[in-house]
Structure formats: C-alpha cells, structure tokens
Amino acid sequence: MRPTTGDRVPIDAQSVLAPLTRSAVFLTMTIGPDPEDLATVLDVVTEIDDLIKTVGFRFLAGHLTCVVGIGAEAWARISPSARPAELHPFTPVVGPAHTAPSTPGDLLFHIRADREDLCFEFERLLLDALGTNAAVVDEVAGFRYFDTRDLLGFVDGTANPVEQELAGAALIGDDDPDWAGGSYVVVQKYLHDLGAWGTLTTDQQEAIIGRSKADNVERDSETEARPSHKSLATVVDDAGVEHDILRDNMPFGRPGHGEYGTYFIGYTGHLWVLERMLERMFVGDPPGRYDRMLDFSTATTGTTFFAPSRSQLAALADAPPTPDSSETEHTPDTANNTAPSDTTTPTPSTDGTGLGLGSLRPGRA
Description:
By secondary structure, this protein is α+β, with helices and mostly antiparallel strands. 23% of the residues lie in helices and 21% in strands.
C-alpha cells in the first residue's frame, strides 16, 4: 500500500523527521583506533539501508527506521577537510548545583520502530556487522509510556514543532549548503529520583515543569516564583525569535535495579540552539535560577553528533580513512559554544550530494 501524504515511509534510513514510535534503542559506540576499524564502520553505516530492509521488510507495519549520527572526532578521521560548520564535541555545562557532563561517542544509532522485536533484531545484526571494530559505550532501550508521558508523570514533547515547521527546526538549511538536510544531534541520559519526586505535591511538580499534570495545560509563567522547565527550555534569540528543536525522548527503566530515566535526544539545524537551551537549564536565566527538575533528574551522559542526510551518508563510502588519523584530530573550544574556526571549505561535488568527499583522497583499493 502506498503511504498517504503525511504518513511516514514504512522503512527508511536517516529519517530524522519520522514520527514518534512505541519502541526505540539508543546505541552509542566508539570506533577502534586502526584504519581497518574505520573502514569497516564506513562499510556498515553507508549501507545501513540494506540492513533496514533486511529487518523491516519482515513486518512493514512496524515502521522501522534508523538514524546514524557521527561524532566530531570520528568525523575528523573520516573527512578532515570538510565538516559541518557547527560540529564539535559536546561542551560540558557547569551550573551552580548541577553539571551536564560530556561523555565519549563516535557513533549514534537511533533505532525506532512500533515493535520492540524489530529494534532488537536490527541492533543484533548491526553489532554482528560491526564486530570488534566498534565498542558499545551506552545502550538504552526506550518505550512509549501511556500517552507519551515521562516517568515523572508529565506529557513529554508538547513543544515539538508541528509538521510544517519540522524541517526548519531540525534540519540544516541554506546557511550551510554543503550539509543542508543533515541535522545536529545531542543525546543525554537522565536518571530520575522518583522517591524524592514523589514527596512533592502535584502543585509543586506542576510549578517545576510548567504544565498541569493531568491535562498538560501550560501554566502562566509570569505568576511563577522560579522559571519552570518549560520556560528555561524555550530559546529566544536577541531579535525576539523563538527557535525550536525536535525531541524524540523516550522513558526507560529497570525497576528491579531502581533505575528510572528519560533518554533525551534533540535534533536541530543549529547546534547553538540546543547548547543555549542546556545553558539556560543548568546555569539558569538569570544565572543561579536553574531548572529545578535537575534536582530530581541527573544527566549522566552528554554527546553531540552530526546526522548526515541519506545521500550525504552514502557519499562517505568514497571517503576512506586517512593513514594517520592523529594528524586530523582537533581540540574543541571549551571556552564557548562555537565550532573551531579552521574549517576548510569543501570541494564542490559533481554527483549532486554537495559533499565533495570523493575528491578528498584517492579511492579505496
């Protein structure tokens, strides 16, 4: 059956704008140090479409998708002369009471489906294909919790842009034309202290979140004594323009281990928007008046990736690793949230991808 307008493609790679699903796996990995490790990883990720079809065609109604994200250090090994303008490692955010840490990650696989078994099977085959060339550093299986609530009991993702605004919020546009259609991705794993959260009254919880718990109605921020999570997670630039991101958060947990959390994943066309949001949450606006949700939710990971468009990802097959990846490493500017300024303008391509990756080095033997 042909999907109707507005329906998601049944199975797809790099489908950043795919709707929320019932299940997801968030897999963060590091790539081995040898050129052979990187070559194998490139072979796998540039052919991710085939793996999605292998699993997804077994149940098309499961809507299997996977987005591959590549970290800044891995990108420097793959393509040292051409990178997205804002791509740099996650910058830790240190606030008066809480810190957003920076943790390792060369690869992100955001696997989504309406069936848990599809996510499981895809991840199993993916890890088999990568073998010992990449190592898992974090693995989280998420699930939809009732009417898209988090484990704190509130509806999550209400501020997501609507359909006609999705691409403008989540995808890189014409201001970085060589990477248009790609997306910056930030992931964080939050662990909740549900015991402490449960000692609060419903009104106290609602004041922290900025919405009513039962029916998700927005509270009047002007009457609140402290900025709410809703207010601090809203980014407005100096011209008064509000900037959205696309969230695809999922609850996760292991009750037998006392583990309850939310896996935050945000897609944006401008990395600075997400970074400013985190600064407002952890440092506060004004400074010191931080997001009180952080008193009950601890960030344990923080990693930034670039998710190329489908054609950009496929073009990486023509960009074999450099003989000595150490020559391409760069140090992030941790003093501010700006990308390094020594980016070289990529050579325009002739294949319509806009990457010019095939001209960076000789083809792979």
